[in-house]
Design a protein that fits this description.
- The complex is a heterotrimer of chains A (about 475), B (about 475) and C (about 100).
- In chain A, about 40% of the residues lie in helices and about 15% in strands.
- Chain A contains 15 helices and 11 strands.
- Chain A has an 8-stranded mixed sheet with strand order 4-6-5-10-11-9-7-8, sandwiched between helices. A 3-stranded mixed sheet of chain A has the order 1-3-2, with helices on both faces.
- In chain A, helix 7 runs antiparallel to helix 15 and helix 9 crosses helix 11.
- Chain B folds into 3 domains: about 290 residues, no CATH class; about 110 residues, no CATH class; about 60 residues, Arc Repressor Mutant, subunit A.
- In chain B, strands 1, 2, 7, 8, 11, 12, 13, 14 and 15 form a 9-stranded mixed sheet that branches. A 3-stranded antiparallel sheet of chain B has the order 6-5-16, with no helix packed on it. Chain B has a two-stranded antiparallel sheet with strand order 4-17.
- In chain B, helix 2 packs antiparallel against helix 3, helix 7 packs parallel to helix 9 and helix 12 crosses helix 15.
- Chain B is elongated and about 95 Å long.
- The N and C termini of chain B lie far apart (about 70 Å).
- Chain C is an alpha+beta fold.
- In chain C, a hairpin with a 2-residue loop joins strand 2 and strand 3.
- Classes of the chains: A alpha/beta (about 475), B alpha+beta (about 475), C alpha+beta (about 100).
- The interface between A and C is large, with 73 and 51 residues.
Chain lengths: ~475, ~475, ~100
């Protein structure tokens, strides 16, 4: 069963080839048997999952088929789940049993989804390798000596290893797309404001967006259909109608205008990565798409702009973790200052602390204009670059990541080098656009991904492009040898 | 300016006023703003700063701020932006206060104050912005720890920042009173200073005329107008003393203690605060349209100045009486109801500012919680006017009303307080008193016209005593004069 | 704009993080690496460009003034490291 896509499993449930309980038990058993090698889950919610599966079987028996009825999903441990520990990969929240449930989780549960558990992630979603988790690194199922990418590393790894057929993630600078690329799965970051952020623990509020990771674009469409929509509890979640993502998947690509930004193929880019993306573009050309050269000159500043804006917002968002109302508190604080400083220093890991310090510095008196304000201006330039490009093209494409999965620890001591892992994904977050990473082949046995960027609220178009590509290729169906 | 010189020093005062808005729910959450309940019963997941929670702006808070802006003829921020003011404090759950800085909802405006000598002065408002209140730190009863109650966290406030346009305590208090009158008239705040629903922070500096502004201090914890006046005088004297002794004023926050009329410096932290303001990424710019503004302008309630003018005109009240009664919406409403029911505005004004005010003051009650409804005071006034009771009995009836014995008519009836109108009955009593007091009668008759006027008092007193005050004094006088004249 | 241990200490205090003397130097170095990369921003020609705080320039939705949040005290107090009589407890704060 585990080699099937979510879409196939849905059909199987409807055809009563197997029950939701059988399906859920199968994945729970696989997690139990194999996750020791990957560490992709922080918490497995077996009992709750089986209760939900039984309810799904009853619903199916009663003819109540919803979008995700009976389908097991793994949620990133950044989404609050009432009654279940929600750690955000941090010691700070190791003891935090959320008192409420995130809208994304609730929306999917309403459509009948079953929660298998909570997946591992970089601490507070800050990282591109899943090495900053308090619960230890996640390993890449294609080579367990390598990282799965991050921050939704647990989500991508458990999918690739077929420990779960669908997963949720969040993407602030590439945290869905980069691990999707490094694990050979499909991941979509929707338009900023497409999916509610209520109950999703904030990293950088103006950049964070939740999205699905799946084995195929069709699976992502199915999950996004359930996740997306207006939520009055999130002021930044827009009241725009949700398109029929599944209905638009098969649309022909004849005449599709694909913009190819020269900045996504810089001179210093690894030739194998560039070739891999170009190969994917050629496949789409075969289907009638036209390639158009475009330029996004300001995106060369997206990494520096991001590393001001994201840490600045994070420094403020993470102030609530103060050891007073929830979460970690140090032993025997001698006074309030001591309580704050030791609780936060002991509760947060090194990368989180670094980013808090950078963000605090960038907002502090005398530096605000030079850093934060300037970064926000650059942000507008980047957005305007995309807007100009989308006058002439339907989607933009290029490699998702400048490299395939790197060795565990390879960049642990070099944050700036680590930040460059997101060089192709970050600009999309600054502009708030939807973008997807799809598997587009292998380089030395490791998966490579190609990114498809759409205009605002054009998730349907992006999914359509990836789906058509996946009809012609089978990269997305490859399973790591050890996890067949 | 020269009118405000103290010993050759010019005093410069500006105010920062926090006004708690009378909305049902909080500014960013649907939790109740009710007070007086158990700790943390009104602290929602949002107010608690739970991970993953997000704010949504309360429409009524925006409308209240716009109403205030219109009342002070300010430019309304068609686009205003919430920012985060970052600092750590246990009653600040998110580690930042959501407030406004660069783009506030209310821009520059003006408040006209009236001084005791009758002159008017304009105090400029720099701006007013919306923000959330913090929770409360409780230092008592936690055996050496501090307890945090977040019921108040997220209650909407507008902070009104004045220009340093006031030159002495009288002006500052007049300004504070006028702001109080405006916000209570608008109905956007209940104005209860004792509960901290309106909080005044006073920035004070002194300088020699013509010199640049001196270093200022900020005095907090002024929970009545009386304390504000005293605290300002205290701080002005202190600053002048320090400077005249060759010292320097340190920029600091001072906490005033009304019980002892002293102030102390709050510990100045060695590191200056650096609040790292930046636009709150969880909120979007608030847009106020021309139509919104027009609609709010159309339904603006009467403001204190307009009301005062109307009172002078409609009720023939003096400037002083009208200003006093018009100052708060609750007092004005009470007065108008009593005057309309009683049919005598001057009498109603005297009662509201006299006996009623004294009683409210003595029991530390707000007029909104007055146990005597305005309609009842009106009825009382009516009974005085139609001669049913004397002014003296009226005070007795008022006390009974206050005690909850019923309406004036019920009390007059049940306690038999009606004035005697039966002249036959009264004549009998007067005849008996004259018969019982031969010496006084002789004395009266022997006196000249001028002295008789005094001597009749004895008989009036006797009659009132015998009738338990129910006789109509005028009638008593008239009958006595007839019967005593030989 | 290189930062040294003194700046790190000031910023760490603002962020209520403890930086021990032993780690201060290495931390300053890392932060300088990051700020060095970030300093590329200084080359950008941003002139009169308006800062962009949100990707989509839309306005704030407003909520009706209704009390609709439940009392969650009994649910959240057990999450607190220390609480008493319905309050969250911290070491005594001296004003």
């Amino acid at each position: 069963m585990h080699d099937k896509t979510l879409t196939e499993l849905k059909a199987g449930l409807q055809a009563k080839d197997f029950s939701a309980r059988e399906l859920t038990e199968h994945f729970l058993d696989r997690i139990e048997a194999r996750d020791g090698e990957l560490n992709s889950f922080i918490t497995v919610t077996r009992e709750q999952a089986l209760r939900q599966a039984d309810a799904a079987d009853q619903a199916i028996a009663a003819g109540d088929h919803r979008l995700l009825t009976g389908l097991p999903i793994a949620h990133k441990d950044i989404f609050c789940t009432e009654g279940v520990r929600t750690s955000c990969g941090s010691r700070m929240l190791d003891n935090f049993v959320a008192p409420y449930t995130a809208t994304v989780v609730e929306n999917m549960a309403r459509e009948g989804a079953i929660m298998l558990g909570k997946t591992n992630m970089d601490e507070f979603a800050m990282g591109s390798s899943n090495e900053t988790s308090f619960y230890g690194p996640v390993r890449n199922p294609w080579d367990t000596e390598r990282v799965p990418g991050g921050s939704s590393g647990g989500a991508a790894a458990c999918l690739a290893a077929r420990l779960a057929p669908g997963a949720t993630g969040t993407d602030t600078g590439g945290s869905i797309r980069q691990p999707a690329a490094l694990n050979g799965v499909t991941g979509l970051k929707p338009t900023y404001g497409r999916v509610s952020r209520w109950g999703m623990i904030a990293f950088a509020s103006s950049l964070d967006q939740a999205g699905p990771l799946g084995l195929s674009a069709a699976d992502c469409a199915l999950m996004l259909q359930a996740m997306a929509g207006h939520d009055a509890k999130d002021s930044t979640c827009l009241n725009e109608p949700v398109d029929d993502y599944l209905g638009g998947l098969d649309q022909s690509l004849d005449g599709l205008r694909i913009g190819v930004p020269e900045e996504f193929f810089p001179d210093n880019l690894d030739g194998a990565i560039a070739d891999n993306a170009r190969e994917a573009l050629r496949e789409l050309e075969k289907q009638g798409a036209k390639l158009i050269k475009v330029s996004l000159p300001s995106i060369k500043l997206s990494v520096p702009a991001y590393y001001v804006i994201a840490p600045a917002e994070a420094s403020s968002n993470l102030s609530r973790f103060d050891g007073v109302r929830f979460g970690y508190r140090c032993d025997d604080p001698k006074d309030l200052e001591d309580l704050y400083k030791r609780s936060r220093s002991e509760g947060f890991g090194a990368e989180v602390k670094r980013r808090i310090l950078v963000g605090t510095y960038a907002l502090s008196a005398g530096y605000y204009d030079a850093y934060y304000k300037r970064a926000q201006k650059v942000r507008r330039l980047i957005r305007d670059d995309f807007a100009r490009a989308f006058k002439d093209v339907d989607v933009l494409m290029g490699p998702t990541s400048p490299e395939t999965a790197f060795k565990l620890g390879a960049k642990a001591d070099d944050p700036v080098n680590m930040y460059m892992a997101d060089v192709f994904t970050i600009a999309v977050n600054l502009a708030g656009l939807p973008a997807l990473s799809m598997p587009s082949g292998f380089i030395d046995g490791l998966p490579a991904g190609t990114q498809v960027i759409g205009n605002y609220f054009q998730e349907g178009r992006v999914l359509n492009v990836a789906h058509r590509y996946q009809l012609a290729t089978d990269w997305h169906l490859r399973i790591p040898g050890a996890f067949q | 300016m020269s009118s405000s010189l103290f010993n050759g020093w010019e005093v410069v005062i500006g105010l920062e006023v926090h006004v708690q808005l009378a909305t049902r729910s909080k500014i960013f959450s649907g939790a109740s703003t009710a007070t007086g309940d158990e700790p943390n019963r009104h602290a929602s997941l949002i107010d608690l700063g739970m991970p993953g929670t997000l704010p949504v702006v309360n429409k009524e808070a925006i409308r209240n701020a716009v109403r205030f802006g219109l009342a002070i003829n300010a430019e309304i921020g068609r686009r205003s932006v919430f920012e985060r003011k970052n600092y750590f404090y246990p009653d600040l759950p998110k580690g930042y206060q959501t407030t406004q800085l660069a783009e506030p909802i209310v821009g520059a405006g003006e408040v006209v104050i009236r001084l005791e000598d009758g002159t008017e002065k304009s105090v400029r408002i720099h701006h007013a912005h919306l923000e959330e209140d913090a929770g409360k730190s409780l230092h008592e009863g936690f055996h050496g720890h501090t307890g945090i109650d977040l019921n108040r966290a997220g209650t909407p406030l507008i902070e009104i920042v004045s220009e340093p346009d006031m030159g002495n305590a009288e002006e500052a208090v007049a300004f504070a009173r006028q702001l109080h009158a405006i916000v209570t008239s608008l109905g956007i705040c209940d104005g209860d200073m004792s509960q901290g629903n309106m909080r005044f922070d006073v920035n004070i500096s002194v300088r020699r005329p013509g010199e640049p502004l001196g270093t200022r201090t900020e005095t907090k914890n002024l929970n009545s107008f009386r304390f504000m006046e005293k605290a300002i005088k205290l701080e002005v004297e202190r600053q002048i003393d320090v400077l005249e002794d060759g010292g320097k004023i340190v920029q600091e926050t001072r906490l005033y203690n009304g019980d002892t009329n002293t102030a102390r410096s709050m510990r100045t932290k060695e590191d200056a605060n650096d609040y790292r303001y930046f636009p709150c990424p969880d909120l979007l710019p608030v847009l106020v349209s021309e139509e919104d503004i027009d609609a709010l302008r159309a339904e603006m309630p009467e403001l204190p100045d307009a009301r005062k003018a109307r009172f002078m005109d409609a009720y023939q009240l003096s400037d002083y009486d009208a200003a006093l009664l018009a100052a708060s919406i609750a007092t004005a409403r009470y007065f108008e109801t009593a005057a309309d029911h009683g049919g005598d505005a001057k009498l109603a004004a005297n009662w509201v500012m006299g006996d009623l005010a004294a009683k409210l003051n003595a029991e530390d009650l707000d007029i909104a919680h007055c146990p005597v409804p305005a309609e009842h005071l009106g009825q009382l006034i009516q009974r005085i006017k139609d001669g049913t009771i004397s002014s003296k009995i009226a005070k007795q009836v008022f006390e009974a009303c206050w005690a909850g014995d019923g309406s004036p008519d019920q009390i007059i009836e049940s306690q038999g307080l009606k004035q005697m109108s039966d002249s036959g009955e009264l004549e009998k009593i007067i005849d008996r008193i004259i018969a019982d007091s031969p010496a006084q009668v002789e004395d009266y008759r022997g006196a000249d016209e001028a002295k008789r006027k005094k001597k009749i008092g004895f008989f009036v007193g006797q009659v009132m005593k015998a009738t338990q005050g129910k006789a109509n004094p005028q009638q008593v006088n008239q009958l006595l004069q007839e019967k005593l004249t030989p | 704009m290189a930062i040294d241990s003194r700046v790190v200490a000031r910023v760490a205090h603002l962020a209520r993080l403890q930086v021990d003397d032993g780690e201060s130097e290495a931390l300053s170095e890392r932060l300088n690496d990051i700020l060095g990369m970030v300093d590329q921003l200084q080359q950008a020609d941003v002139g009169e460009v308006e800062p962009l705080a949100h990707p989509l320039e839309v306005s704030q939705p407003l909520r009706d003034d209704q009390v609709d949040e439940p009392d969650v005290r009994d649910k959240v107090l057990p999450l607190a490291p220390a609480s008493e009589d319905g309050c969250f407890l911290v070491p005594r704060v001296i004003e």
